[in-house]
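Write out this protein's structure.
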Amino acid sequence: MSRRATPLALVLTCLIAACSQQESPPVAEVEPSPPATPAAKAAPVVASVTAQTAGDERAVLDDYLAAINSHDPEQAGALLDEKVHYFDAFTGQIQRNRLDAVKKVLDLYQDAVPDGHWEIRSEPAVGSGTIAYEWTFTGTNTGSWGGIGASGQKIDLKGISFVRIANGKIIYKADYFDTTTLGKQLGWQ
């Protein structure tokens, strides 16, 4: 089966795979369209009712960030697909299901920075089920960060995330940022 990808989706897929030096993210299966008949060629093109619009994808991302900013990792986790692949630069690993993503990434940030806030810095690039966006993460490290005691230091970290959405759920998320900058802000270096 051949699939046609938009240029944005293709670029983001390559960038995600190259930056994480991990396997390529999962790709939602798309059934190919049957060959057009002469009568079908004259008919107007109508999008499939199962296809998501960019607005739907952005709404999923906005709901996810609202749950994170409400300090509710379980609610945010409900927007992750059961088989989500979730990469975070701090852990350096891909979590391969919702439970691990919540416990090993979302809970980690909630415990370490209970007042943490994620803000989108500019208009995200959205297309074909893929979103790329820049963010700023702010807050104060008042809890343990993966076994490292609280530093009491303020964080003002910038990064970028790539998200792939299918059927109203996040199926892939990768968060990239400079871990050395985070370590310096926390007083670890």
